[in-house]
C-alpha cells in the first residue's frame, strides 16, 4: 500500500471519529455511535489514535466552548478503549507550563512508536503581545500515561 492511499485511510478514520456520526444523514444510516465523548463544556479535535497491546489510545486537544470552563488555554487529553466503542478519559496528558515554549497552549498531538517507547510531537504555543509563536515540541513516554518533555523544547 503506498503512502498516499494510507494517508487517505488515516484521514477517513480521523474524520469519522471527529464527526462521531453527528451529521443527521449519517446518524440515520449508522448506529451505534463511536464518538469519543467530549469533556463537559469542551470540544475535542486534532486526534492521534494508536493501538498498544490490545488497547486503543486517543490523544486529542480540547478547547472550551461554553462556561464554566475556567482555563484560557487548550490541553491534550488521553482516552483509552478496548473495542473502539466505549472510551474512558484518563485525564490530561499534556497542559501548558509557565515559563516554557508551551506556556500558552498545547495543540495537535501526533503519537508514534511502539510498546515501550512512544514519542508525541505537538505544537507548543507562546504568546507575545498579539503574536502566537508556534513550535514543534517533543515528549516521550514508556507507558503512554506519563510524558517527559524534552529539555531542548
Give the class from helix and strand content and strand pairing: alpha+beta
* Overall pLDDT metric: 81
Major sheet: arrangement of strands = 1-2-3-4
**Low-confidence regions:** 21-30
> What is the tally of beta strands?
8
The helix count comes to 2
Distance between the termini: 34 Å
What Rg is obtained from the alpha carbons, in whole angstroms? Answer: 16 Å
The percent range for strand residues is over 45%
**What is the string of helix and strand elements?**
HHEEEEEEEE
Oligomeric state as shown: single chain
Largest sheet: 4 strands, antiparallel
Q: What do you see in this structure?
A:
This protein is of the alpha+beta class. The chain has helices spanning 3-19, 24-29, and strands spanning 42-52, 55-64, 75-81, 88-94, 105-114, 117-128, 131-141, 148-149. The protein contains two helices and eight strands. Strands 1-2-3-4 form a four-stranded antiparallel beta sheet, with no helix packed on it. A four-stranded antiparallel beta sheet has the order 5-6-7-8, with no helix packed on it. The termini are far apart. Mean pLDDT is 81; it is low at 21-30.
Task: Offer a concise description of the structure.
The protein is of the alpha+beta class and 153 residues long. The chain has helices at residues 3-19, 24-29; strands at residues 42-52, 55-64, 75-81, 88-94, 105-114, 117-128, 131-141, 148-149.
List the helices and strands and how they pair.
Layout (H helix, E strand, L loop, with lengths): L2 H17 L4 H6 L12 E11 L2 E10 L10 E7 L6 E7 L10 E10 L2 E12 L2 E11 L6 E2 L4
Antiparallel strand pairs: 1-2, 2-3, 3-4, 5-6, 6-7, 7-8
Amino acid at each position: 500500500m503506498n503512502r498516499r492511499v494510507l494517508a487517505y485511510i488515516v484521514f477517513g478514520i480521523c474524520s469519522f471519529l471527529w464527526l462521531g456520526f453527528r451529521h443527521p444523514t449519517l446518524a440515520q444510516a449508522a448506529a451505534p455511535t463511536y464518538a469519543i465523548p467530549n469533556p463537559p463544556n469542551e470540544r475535542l479535535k486534532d486526534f492521534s489514535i494508536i493501538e498498544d497491546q490490545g488497547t486503543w489510545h486517543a490523544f486529542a486537544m480540547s478547547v472550551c466552548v461554553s462556561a464554566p470552563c475556567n482555563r484560557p488555554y487548550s490541553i491534550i487529553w488521553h482516552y483509552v478503549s478496548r473495542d473502539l466503542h466505549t472510551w474512558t478519559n484518563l485525564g490530561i496528558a499534556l497542559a501548558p507550563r509557565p515559563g516554557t515554549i508551551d506556556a500558552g497552549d498545547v495543540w495537535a498531538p501526533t503519537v508514534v512508536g511502539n510498546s515501550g517507547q512512544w514519542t508525541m510531537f505537538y505544537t507548543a504555543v507562546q504568546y507575545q503581545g498579539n503574536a502566537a509563536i508556534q513550535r514543534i515540541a517533543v515528549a516521550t513516554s514508556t507507558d503512554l500515561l506519563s510524558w517527559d518533555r524534552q529539555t531542548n523544547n
